[in-house]
């Protein structure tokens, strides 16, 4: 099972939307996928109508219960809990719980926009880091800082940067993307080819508590997440076991 942490220190960059919609598209492509909501805000759980479901992540970390089936066939979720910030930053509780998970090809861990214990646990255990990033000058500055922090925690962790809420018609967005392309050349990080456009269907899908592919299959947002799933399945060498 490939374990992917979805994280950026900056808030509102589309981390939870990416966990929701990439997860749905990976399942559609027949990869057995489990999502873990590590954020006390529980946006990911809400986006599947499972904000108050149990067992939640705190139970699961304490060996009580298995991931729950979402409304989408084949897609599983460990729902979040508001008390998540209290977990240990010393004992590797997430690693122990992940080792007990069987029968999945890929696990996407939705992290909060901070570097507290839940994120640290995810980064210690991840095979890869996926960083959704807005194409704005301030976001790029935050990205550089976040990347430095990660280096201290996990030297050599592969990082894929995903442009989210992308508005190619805006000069500032295009300039930021160009700057990012140059910056990435000097690093060992990868900029994914697929960019997720700013698309209201993605925001509506969260409110309607379903993936964008179910809310509006013909939308630009749904198409972009389908492309992203194809790109990462190949880049991450995912295999159906
Ligand atoms: N591509 C998009 N187009 C339009 N709206 C989007 C897009 N992606 C996300 N949003 C909206 O932006 C807001 C933040 O998205 P999301 O919750 O996925 O970000 P996040 O990085 O998980 O936030 P946080 O840091 O608070 O966990 C939500 O209201 C969501 O509906
Ligand atoms: Mg989130």
Automatic annotation (TrEMBL):
Keyword Hydrolase attached: yes
Pfam families noted in UniProt: AAA_31 (PF13614)
EC class name: hydrolase
Record-linked CDD domains: ParAB_family (cd02042)
Gene from which this protein is expressed: soj_1
Keywords assigned by UniProt, alphabetized: Hydrolase
EC number annotated for this UniProt entry: 3.6.-.-
Organism superkingdom: Bacteria
Residues annotated as domain AAA: 3-152
Entry keyword annotation includes Lipid metabolism: no
Organism: Halomicronema hongdechloris C2206
UniProt name for this protein: Chromosome-partitioning ATPase Soj
MF annotations from Gene Ontology: hydrolase activity
Classification via InterPro entries: AAA_dom, DNA_Partitioning_ATPase, P-loop_NTPase
């Amino acid at each position: 099972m490939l374990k992917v942490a979805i994280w950026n220190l900056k808030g509102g960059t589309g981390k939870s939307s990416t966990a929701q919609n990439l997860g749905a598209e990976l399942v559609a492509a027949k990869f057995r996928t489990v999502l873990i909501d590590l954020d006390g805000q529980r946006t990911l759980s809400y986006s599947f109508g499972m904000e108050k479901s149990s067992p939640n992540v705190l139970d699961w970390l304490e060996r009580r219960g298995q991931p729950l089936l979402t409304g989408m066939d084949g897609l599983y979720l460990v729902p979040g809990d508001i008390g998540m910030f209290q977990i240990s930053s010393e004992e590797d509780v997430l690693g122990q719980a992940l080792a007990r998970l069987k029968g999945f090809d890929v696990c996407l861990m939705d992290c909060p926009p901070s570097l507290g214990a839940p994120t640290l646990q995810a980064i210690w255990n991840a095979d890869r880091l996926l960083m959704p990033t807005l194409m704005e000058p301030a976001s790029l500055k935050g990205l550089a800082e976040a990347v430095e922090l990660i280096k201290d925690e996990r030297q050599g962790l592969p990082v894929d940067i995903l442009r989210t809420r992308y508005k190619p018609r805006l000069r500032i967005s295009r300039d930021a993307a160009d700057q990012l392309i140059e910056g990435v050349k000097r690093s060992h990080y990868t900029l994914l080819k697929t960019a997720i456009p700013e698309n209201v269907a993605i925001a509506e899908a969260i409110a309607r508590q379903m993936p964008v592919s179910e809310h509006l299959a013909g939308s630009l947002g749904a198409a972009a997440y389908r492309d992203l799933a194809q790109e990462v399945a190949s880049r991450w060498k995912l295999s159906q076991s």
